[in-house]
Amino acid sequence: HSPSIMTMDSTLIAQVAVDRAISLEVEKLASAGPDDPTAAATALASLVVLLGQLDPDAAVPAQLTSTLPLLQLNLTPGVDQHVQRNSVALLTGLMSVDQATWQACITDSTLVPSLVALLSGAAAQDDSVLCINVCAALTSVAQGGPEGVARVIEAEGLLAACAALPAFESDVARSDPLQEAVADLLCQVATEESGRPLMIQQGCVTALASLLASTASPETRVRVLMCLGMLLPSSPAAQLSVASNSAAIKALQVTIMGGDDSDAQQV
Q: What is the rounded distance in angstroms from the CA atom of residue 142 to the CA atom of residue 10?
């Protein structure tokens, strides 16, 4: 065989193997049920990995998208912590690669509010990993366009994300990745101009200014500055809000005048 044919054949074989592995893990997930959360969490984790191994140009296997009702059920209170973490991670991945799944999540009026409630509960239960995973899921919802952004804002997802930050601020190892996840979410929502007035109304500028003042993460700082750059031009009141936060202004001055963070300096 020519090298190109061999490459094609090996790719096809690999995808068949991934499809079979997905079918096996979906069966394990179904058989685990609520009585075996360890097996369910393990199967969900495997499905997250396998989703990333699919050919990006191929359709997502139906047996994988068929898990959506179960994933939604796992968002409800009382479900095992690890099952919830992995369910949200798989839901995020599916929304990112499968338009039909994203549309189903947007059409279902209960899914985004369930995610927001889960985020608030996770912060109250000191579960930063679940908070991060839910923020990523809400970011995937918002990535679909104005309809997704509206769902996140209406469900007060931004308020819940910002409210989760103080619970972990004393633990840098947990607060840094959560801050980045929240900044990602805010930045994604702000890319839709239609959502910016409501973001300002819900206090996102105040939260962003506080985040600018407190974060030690260059990645988070860049996202915060980008988001403020989208929100501030249309609102003198928002500009005054940031200007009145002396710690945020000091952080901005330090970013501009010193350090090696050229990305943040440019923004």
A: 36
d(CA 74, CA 115): 10
pLDDT tens digits, 136-183: 999 999 998 999 999 999 999 999 999 999 989 888 889 999 999 999
Cα angle at 47 between 41 and 48, to 5 degrees? 90
Q: Residue 159: CB partners within 8 Å, gap ≥ 6?
A: 202, 203
Dist CA 62 CA 175 (whole Å): 37
* Phi, psi dihedrals of residue 144, rounded to the nearest 5°: -75, -15
- Structure-token pair, residue 92: 């995020």
* Encoded tokens for 202: 């819900």
Cα Rg, the chain, nearest whole Å = 21
Closest CA to 207 of 236, 231, 174, 171: 231
The model's pTM: 0.91
